[in-house]
Amino acid sequence: MSERRSRPGTGEGSRIAATLPDLGVVAVGGAVGSLARHLLSIAIGSSGDFPLAIFVINVCGAFLLGLLVEVVAQAGGEGGRWRTTRLLLGTGALGGFTTYSLLAADLAELLLDGAFGVAALYAVLTLVLGGAASWCGVLAGRMIGPSSARGAER
Fold it and tell me: So where does this one cross the membrane (predicted)?
């Protein structure tokens, strides 16, 4: 029988206490991201059968998340302020901004309406362009991140 060891300060009580501030940071970011999504949806407006607003939001969000992940990783990543930045902007704001649930609901509605071609186009474009946007975000993060600045100083 193996014994489970934990580091000091990592017991159940300390995990809950450490999580409470994180939850607040994520909640604030999520509120800001959700509001931004709603306002951008209003600004883009209706575009007929194709759910353009959510498509644009998800692709832009994928780019921004790729950028954020790369910049945070280059900056040293997981500790202190960078962890809070990742929770606030990544999990919170971009998690609230982008929306898988609305993508799924839009796809279901298109399929129920018999718009199979539009649904397929929406699904494929979201996945392909979202992946490409995320990749571009990572590349942009490499160009502007702390590591590239250190390399330029040499």
Answer: 20-40, 52-73, 85-103, 115-140
The tens digit of pLDDT for each residue in 104-142 reads 999 999 999 999 999 999 999 999 999 999 999 999 999
Give the tokens for residue 18.
């450490």
CB neighbourhood size of 90 (10 A): 18
3-state DSSP assignment of residue 7: coil
Residues 13, 20: Cα–Cα separation, whole Å: 11
Confidence at residue 153, expressed as pLDDT on a 0 to 100 scale:
45
Domain boundaries, the chain: 15-145
b/e map of 91-129 (b: 16 or more CB within 10 Å)?
bbbbbbbbbeebbeebbeebeeeebeebbeebbeebeeb
Answer yes or no: is 95 a known binding residue.
yes
Measured CA to CA in angstroms, residue 123 lies from 72, 95, 100, 148 at distances of 29, 19, 11, 35
Query: Which residue type is seen at 6?
Result: S
> Among candidates 144, 136, 147, which has minimal Cα distance to 64?
136
Say whether 30 counts as a known binding-site residue: no
Q: What is the pLDDT of residue 147?
A: 59
Q: How far is it, in rounded angstroms, from Cα 86 to Cα 82?
A: 6
The pTM score is 0.81
